[in-house]
Amino acid sequence: MTTILVTGGTGTLGRLVTQRLRADGQEVRVLSRRTRPYAVDLRTGGAGLDAALAGVETVVHCASTPRGGDEQAARNLIAAARRAGVGHLVYISIVGVDRVPLGYYRSKLAVERLVEESGLGWTVLRATQFHDLVVTLLQGLAKPPVLVVPAGVPDQPVEVAEVAERLAGLALGAPAGRVPDMAGPEVRTFDSLARAYLRATGRRRPVVRVPLAGKTYRAFRAGGHLAPELAVGKVTFEEYLERRFGKGPVQSPA
Questions:
Q1: Which of 30, 52, 83, 144 has fewest C-beta within 10 Å?
Q2: Domain containing 186 — which CATH number?
Q3: Enzyme group, top EC level (predicted)?
Q4: Is residue 77 included in any domain, yes or no?
């Protein structure tokens, strides 16, 4: 049995990774800012981090926030992992962090480089956006009477449980470096995802496509965040919506 530490282990992905590893019989420690006995803020580190890593063989690093601090958190985690003699650091990143000049993506790419240069055995998996994230974005966009989406932007959402399964499998294996990306089963226009969301939730809104400006928008329009050749996910956005909102089958647009 391997002792594994999952950072961000109470989050959308980390919680499922933890469940999957425990179901496999592994000893899993959950590290988050508020969950005892391993309540640690990675951005500040401290003695609690060393205690959390004592005897740990593998770390799955899921903790992340677009509000900033990921790079410092990674530095603290890597330094403590070295002190503890951790043999394998697994990191979840995002498809397109090297192609889309979004601030959060740049931070994720910087963390990838820290992991690669850590001196530890490492594995990095990039995934496309989770279905959950797309719905969170659409919930905010649907608040006004008109749902406005960026024109010409595609997306390829993936089921978070499938990513968790893949990440857990990587954690149980040997360090593998950068592994093939993981993407959802369909490349979709964002307006088609918006309409599917409205149908699933029984809401009525006109969907309006609005062109934007800037390098980040152009990169998204060009599909820098997609991996159509690696569409290994099985669960479609409509299947996710049906499970989450329970209003019967949601039909995919023809």
A1: 144
A2: 3.40.50.720
A3: oxidoreductase
A4: yes
